Amino acid sequence: MPYIHMKRILCSNIVLFLVVILAVDNVSSFSVSVPPVKSVCRSMQPGHDKYKPQTIDSPFSVSTDISEVQGGSVVEVLLQGSGNKTFKGYYLQARDSNDSPIGMFNSNTLAKVHSCGGIRANAAHHANSEEKNRIAVSWMAPKRYSGEITFTATFVENYVVFWTQVKAQTIKVVS
């Protein structure tokens, strides 16, 4: 009987250990990932407890060096801080005139893709929480789309300080 009891205790401890490890992994993963929930796609807010976006002008910008792009072409989108200002996280979408995410982002060492509304890779976010001052993210314009888009970003300076709805100049997409 003592052998079976010890075996149960050992199994219980192993299960508890695995639950704790998985929980810790999930908690730390939010610093390098975006939860796949609809509210993130629409609001572009990081969901950091009760904290709200900053209302002062953002020290970060999102931009491109073009005003028009051919459908199917790739655009380099620049995210950067003014001066030496750094950010730990970002969330980026190209939005059409209906304010819906459009196009497709590419993953790289600084960007992971996120899918909104069942459309693959129509948003991008940080791949790590290291401080960054400037990064480029690649976006492909839809092949059969004609209209205007605006790159819209969220920048996270730290857990409690972030800006949403930081916009680039509007770009015309021609098919």
TrEMBL record:
The keyword Nucleotidyltransferase does not apply. PROSITE patterns: REELIN (PS51019). Residues 26-175 form the Reelin domain. The keyword Signal applies. InterPro entries: Ferric-chelate_Red/DefProt (IPR051237), Reeler_dom (IPR002861), Reeler_sf (IPR042307). Keywords: Signal. Pfam families: Reeler (PF02014). Residues 1-29 form the signal peptide. It comes from the Eukaryota. This is Reelin domain-containing protein. It comes from Orchesella dallaii.
